[in-house]
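Example A, followed by Example B.
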Amino acid sequence: MSEKVNEVTPTFEEFALTVYPFLDIRPFHATYYRLLQAFAEGRVRRLIITMPPQHGKSVGATTLLPAYMLGLDPDMRIAIASYSASLASRFNRRVQRILEGDEYASLFPQTTIKRGSKPPTVVRTSDEVEVVGRNGVLMSVGREGSLTGNRVDCFILDDLYKDAAEANSPIVRENCWEWYTSVVRTRMHNASREIIVFTRWHEQDLIGTISQLEPVVELRQWRDLEHITPDTWVSLNFEALKTTPATEIDPRGEGEPLWGEQHSAELLLAKRRLDPLRFECMYQGRPSVREGLLYGDNFVEYTELPRDIVRRGNYTDTADMGDDYLCSICYAVDADGVIYLLDVIYSREPMEVTEALVSDMLLRTQTRFALVESNNGGRGFARVLQQRAPAVRIEWFHQSADKEARILSNSSTVLHTIRFPQGWRERWRELYAHLTTYRRKFASNRWHDAADVLTGIVEKEVFAGKEGVRAIHFLR
């Protein structure tokens, strides 16, 4: 039970700025600290936070939080765990430096630790420190380390995998899970709390495994906390570059960086171009594994169009939901049936914007035929395109075939027959990121729009009139 030690107990953010006055608190930090305060007060018992590197994740959860919780309750027994004992000890020492500071004493005078050799009966090492005259203790342990006989009121798990090599090792992941279930969970009681703060590396890391076995709720608005049961995990993922719809918790617009003053959108986009898969893991909190990718980075590029182009076409899929992308691709086909992508509109802008973008692209690429899926507003979209580009023959159709079966069964044909223009990773960055990180496990993908359109193109151009497209019904 927390106790009030001052007339006015500081908020977590006030506490942070008092003991660390050099902190640069940005809006996302304020959100992060507000959630950490809810955890410190016991309103959230199980918390998962994912955040990009160098954004203050460990400063908040593994340095400031344990000091704040010991101030609220000097009898709290807290354990910090990380991938190595030395890193966990380093966190412990940072907390100790806060606890012995004058700023901390002004806020929480009842929470003190041993200074020098006094009092002699109180423990203070780099791995364990006790609160003088109380039952509180701060312990640190490396992954697979022991906490035999110790009851823990709060576990803070910070980066249990050192790097991608560890996270990609099935042996390390299995050992981590076994340690978590046999050490962490066995030291906890009914009122214990646990917080996991990670940079994600793999779908089946600790967070991924927990999410498959226990209830996890993604935090979108603050009132969600009012209905959280003690056994439910609250999850909050801070994307480095905003791609998901704005919420009360994260009101950023699309493409806006999390901490632009330190990590600009240009810098983050450059990192994504170098390795889209790694970027999705580390910076976006959406891990995937290379061996589970459907296409990977295996698309073939071309430098110039062949002379024997026999036709030019377009395939358009309008957005199914507010979070989906409109994907419209213009392409050319040569005499051998090879498909060359010419231009792409890949956007979540409203239809009144994309109608103009697509019609201009049709005219610019000298496209003569366009196919528009009518499943979600496509019929009206096709009619507007016809008005804007009367020289283009535009047809709309209903796609009734199973999307998952279509995309998975045609993936090899997509790789063998479609060519992308050289430099397409810079030209169509989001398209590149979504295609090269698209996973074979269909339900693991957030967006299917790009893969769906590539599949539709090969169905029309490679399998037209064959068994594979009997589900496509053209409507005039």
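Example B, a separate protein, is given below in the same form.
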Amino acid sequence: MAKVRSIGVFCGSRLGERESYQLAAEQVGHAIANAGARLVYGGGDVGLMGISASTAAAQGGPVLGIIPDFLIAREGYLDGVEMRVVDSMSIRKSQLIAESDAFVILPGGTGTLEEIFDVVSRQQLGLHDKPVVFLNSDGFWEPFLTLIQHTVREGFTPQSLADLIILESDPAKAVADLIEQLDAMGDAPAASETAN
């Protein structure tokens, strides 16, 4: 039996100012479920992450939420999906990374940025080779790519890290590209790390 792929979704715990962000979150959840993959996310029932996870669950797709206990009162959680309650934000992030075979990054704020830098830095250090795609809804991630390219020009970041940042505007294609990359990699473990 084929391994069920797990795709980590990093995105905002708020809805953002554009309806296109919400639509993209819904389409990502739909695409992950339709691909037969498990959606792994930060556990809350709010913002873009709540839309993405609830859409996947409504389509019958498996969902794993990982949330620190102190955030439950603020963000809630989805009923009827696998939920893992942990002690801290750092444990949540490490488990999100460990449980995911690939990542799709939607618009988000500082928490999403922290997760991005951790995933991309670990990738650059050779701690994992998990594919990452940034869903560039309405050009949201273009300033981020500009910042990374600036750090390359100023000698603080290798070009190889900037090359890891792939922008895609179509949610279904973003998920399909991740699945295609995972299939090309085969069933070999994608990470040398374990969760905390």
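On Example B: The longest helix spans residues 19-34.
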